[in-house]
Amino acid sequence: MAYHQDLTISVDKKIEIDNFENWTVKQNQFAVQPPVAILEDNFTIRIHIDKTTKDNGALKVINDSHSKGILRLENMDFENEKEMICEVEKGGIMIMKPLLFHASNKTTNNERRRVIHIEFSKQELPDGLE
């Protein structure tokens, strides 16, 4: 999987609101890209049901990339960025910011890498959007 940032949030309905863009619907769930201030304040908890290592797709991240706003892959200078592989034990928890540039490789050892991925926000959304 290519490096990316998580740029959308799940919402209950589609409402045309300034600075909320790139609407999608997947499995009857609306998602939208909110203003960057909302994304900067969100965080994700990843609960690892299986041990994840470099051999079964542990998350790779670019250190401190979450503090640089929304990034474009083609503008990244991977020669000068520090990549870290986040191996996590079974039952372990990883907390990350959705704007952290991240990716994971395919499993090469045929071991599962199940993860419960929960995103949190304390932001009040405008115009009745939940």
Would you give an account of this structure?
With 130 residues, the chain is mainly beta. It has a domain at 41-120. Helix content is 5%, strand content 32%. It is built from one helix and nine strands, in the order βββαββββββ. The protein has one helix spanning 36-41, and strands at 9-11, 21-26, 29-33, 43-48, 59-62, 83-86, 93-96, 102-104, 115-120. The strands form three sheets. It has a three-stranded antiparallel β-sheet, with no helix packed on it. A three-stranded antiparallel β-sheet has the order 7-4-9. The protein is globular, with a radius of gyration of 16 Å. The relative contact order is 0.32.
N-to-C SSE string, H for helix and E for strand: EEEHEEEEEE
Q: Segments where pLDDT lies below 50 for 5+ residues?
A: none
Sequence of strands across the biggest β-sheet: 1-3-2
Secondary-structure content class: mainly beta
So how many helices? 1
Instruction: State the shape.
Output: globular
Question: Which sheet architecture does the biggest sheet show?
Answer: 3 strands, antiparallel
What does the radius of gyration come to? 16 Å
- Number of DSSP strands? 9
What distance separates the N and C termini? 30 Å
Mean pLDDT: 92
Strand share of the residues? 25-35%
The residue fraction in helices comes out at: under 10%
